Amino acid sequence: MGYDKRYDGREFDEVRPITAKAGVVKNADGSAYFRIGGTWAYAAVYGPREMFPRFQQNPKKGVLRVNYNMMPFSGQGDRVRPGPNRRAKELSMVSTKAFQDVVDLSKFPNAAVDVFIELPETDAGSRCAGICAASIALADAGIVMKDMVAAVAVGRVDDQIVVDLSYLEEATEDGRGAVDIATAMIPSTGEFTLLQMDGVITKDELKEALSKAKDACAKIAQVQRQALHDKYGNQGGDDNE
Q1: Which of the residues in the chain have pLDDT under 50?
Q2: Structural contact between residues 185 and 151, judged by C-beta atoms closer than 8 angstroms
Q3: Where is 95: in which H helix or E strand?
Q4: Hey, is 188 helix, strand or coil?
Q5: Domains present along the chain, CATH in parentheses
Q6: Which residues contact 235 (CB under 8 A, 6 or more apart)?
């Protein structure tokens, strides 16, 4: 028996409800909140500021550093061990790389921009939610970017290609099981800046999954831009007055 109806009743290409807001951390240079379904992510940006330790400085441009952290009781499964761990280090690295071709730090040599992502509650898609929050926070901090970076998980549950997997879908073992693909994309170009896959999938299934990821990321980017517009849209006043 195939997977003919999602556990939460969504369409196969439908993302969970999204809430996004810019400027949520008072003392940060930029910050954001991004929630998709039961996964919550906060991001705070500090910098550009002089980079320490000095031997890591780049005299040609600034350096972006992303720190990803899941709080101990945030997950649906086992308790997350507090403090740095192998998974957190990996996701910090891939989150940083997701922004490398988008963020322009050429005017800030020897400086660092630090992004801290905290996840107080997760129900799958945590790295993607963190990237979405970080993108809004970087824009809120005034960091020059080519575009937003939108992210979503896609994959296969048994015989169906689905968008934005939930924890129950990720854990599916019936039929062919589940395949989870984390993606991040530059909406204006359609270029993927993150592609990580857990599981085995056919070439045709991968193409279909990535096509659906592009459509979903375009919709998520609209939500991200709206969050910034809600904060800054009226600051210039009404041109018609």
Answers
A1: 237-241
A2: yes
A3: helix 86-99
A4: coil
A5: 18-227 (3.30.230.70)
A6: none
